């Protein structure tokens, strides 16, 4: 290439406006194929516009199926209707719990959202009880109904669980709070049902007063939704007819997740643009789907999994391809302790570690089957990973926190596993002792 040449294309022949394809950066005006869920949602919120106490609502389902999009859409409709009927209502959120490690941080964020810019609470310097009191005072001074929307509620800081999910919705009845007039409702969104099962029964029944389940989309529904975004994002007539059905079929076969469909469309468009083509065709879509799995897993590592969950995920994957042992809970835990040490991360107890394995299953990243241990008695679980181990290992390798924990002979073992010869593999003696160890634990 001539280095004096301008490498950029003069004109983008493919994209008109990329934002609608980007991860959660565009709020659609229209929600498709969620009429039933919207009906249930509306019914749960109807009490507010009638001037009754708000219900607590729990919204759950897998990733990318419209839980947040529908919630935001409902928020606008609810706010408008409350205004029309002159019902006092203040809506806070959705606030993503994953971004807050402590109750203090979460409460201050909410207080500051309710307070004017010149009267914000500092990020430290008070007790958590004190900031909770600030929150109650703010809510009381607003009066009327306050609806708090918490997204990814399974990531709520552990020290905030009961305060938010039990005490807050009951604050009006509690004489220790300054709240006598305002009514507080909570909407919790999650893709982790086990989280709710693990809550204390009183907390569980508070949060789950009304539950709305969102299932995966099928190919035809995804086709309609992707068409809506593609009309905004691509220039006229650049998509071949089979592009959207193919992207929709791929995403439906995987998880029924819109985000994945949008990502395929964006990548397919980029491949076409890179070639200087003015048309996106089937081959571009196929090419786009090739690395999509690794990219998505990397997203999980970056965004959704804590370092401990990431270690649990990679230990499970390595145990699946490990030559001589089944991926049993105990074996996975043993390997995890070694990986945690090599990542300089804390080592959690076995019981806590099993929670991480459960969370991986809830996220759809792993699956377990119960196994009876015969006469010796007892039971164990055998784990599988739902993506191919190769994609997971490639993603892990690219992750800044976890890349270094992979044993150096991982690809060799993977190759044996892929050829169905895993059990005949012997770790070569020349491997550094530490690496060899990873595959030789009792
Ligand atoms: N029915 C729909 N109509 C229009 N857009 C949709 C619909 N469902 C999902 N989307 C879009 O798909 C993307 C993912 O949806 P959303 O963020 O609501 O998923 P989610 O179920 O909340 O996922 P997660 O649990 O990962 O947060 C967003 O860009 C959203 O606007």
UniProtKB/TrEMBL annotation:
Pfam family, one: Cdc6_lid
Chain sites annotated for binding ATP: 65-69, 217
One GO term (biological process): DNA replication
SMART domains: AAA, Cdc6_C
GO molecular function annotations of the record: ATP binding
Keyword Nucleotide-binding on entry: yes
Domain (AAA+ ATPase) ranges: 53-218
Keyword tags: ATP-binding, DNA replication, Nucleotide-binding
InterPro entries according to UniProt: AAA+_ATPase, AAA_22, Cdc6_C, Cdc6_lid, ORC1/CDC6, Orc1/Cdc6_arc, P-loop_NTPase, WH-like_DNA-bd_sf
Occurrences of domain Cdc6 C-terminal (ranges): 313-396
Family designation: Belongs to the CDC6/cdc18 family.
Main function: Involved in regulation of DNA replication.
Name of the featured protein: ORC1-type DNA replication protein
């Amino acid at each position: 290439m001539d280095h004096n040449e301008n490498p950029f294309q003069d004109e983008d022949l493919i994209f008109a406006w990329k934002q609608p394809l980007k991860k959660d950066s565009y709020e659609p005006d229209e929600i498709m194929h969620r009429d039933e869920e919207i009906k249930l949602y509306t019914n749960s919120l109807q009490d507010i516009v009638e001037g009754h106490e708000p219900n607590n609502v729990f919204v759950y389902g897998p990733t990318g199926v419209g839980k947040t999009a529908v919630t935001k859409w409902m928020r606008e409709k609810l706010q408008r209707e409350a205004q029309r009927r002159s019902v006092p209502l203040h809506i806070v959120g959705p606030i993503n719990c994953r971004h807050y490690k402590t109750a203090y941080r979460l409460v201050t964020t909410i207080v500051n959202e309710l307070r004017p810019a010149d009267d914000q609470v500092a990020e430290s310097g008070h007790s958590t009880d004190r900031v909770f009191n600030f929150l109650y005072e703010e809510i009381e001074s607003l009066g009327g109904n306050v609806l708090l929307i918490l997204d990814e509620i399974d990531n709520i800081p552990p020290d905030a669980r009961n305060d938010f999910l039990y005490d807050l919705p009951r604050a009006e009845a509690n004489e220790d709070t300054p709240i006598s007039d305002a009514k507080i409702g909570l909407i919790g969104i999650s893709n982790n049902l086990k989280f709710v099962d693990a809550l204390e029964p009183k907390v569980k029944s508070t949060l789950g007063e009304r539950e709305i389940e969102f299932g995966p989309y099928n190919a035809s529904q995804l086709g309609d939704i992707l068409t809506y975004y593609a009309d905004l994002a691509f220039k006229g007539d650049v998509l071949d007819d089979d592009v959207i059905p193919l992207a929709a079929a791929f995403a439906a076969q995987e998880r029924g997740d819109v985000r994945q469909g949008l990502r395929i469309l964006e990548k397919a468009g980029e491949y076409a643009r890179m070639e200087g083509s003015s048309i996106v065709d089937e081959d571009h879509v196929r090419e786009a789907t090739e690395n999509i799995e690794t990219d998505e897993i990397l997203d999980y590592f970056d965004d959704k999994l804590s370092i401990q969950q990431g270690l649990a995920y990679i230990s499970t994957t390595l145990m699946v391809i490990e030559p001589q042992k089944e991926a049993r809970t105990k074996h996975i835990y043993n390997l995890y302790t070694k990986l945690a040490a090599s990542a300089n991360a804390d080592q959690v107890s076995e019981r806590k570690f099993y929670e991480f394995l459960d969370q991986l299953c809830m996220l759809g990243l792993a699956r377990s089957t119960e196994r009876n241990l015969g006469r010796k008695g007892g039971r164990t679980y055998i784990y599988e990973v739902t993506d191919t181990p190769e994609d997971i290992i490639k993603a892990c390798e690219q992750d800044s926190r976890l890349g270094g924990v992979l044993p150096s002979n991982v690809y060799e073992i993977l190759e044996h596993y892929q050829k169905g010869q895993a059990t005949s593999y012997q770790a070569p003696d020349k491997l550094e002792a530490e690496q060899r160890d990873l595959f030789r634990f009792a």
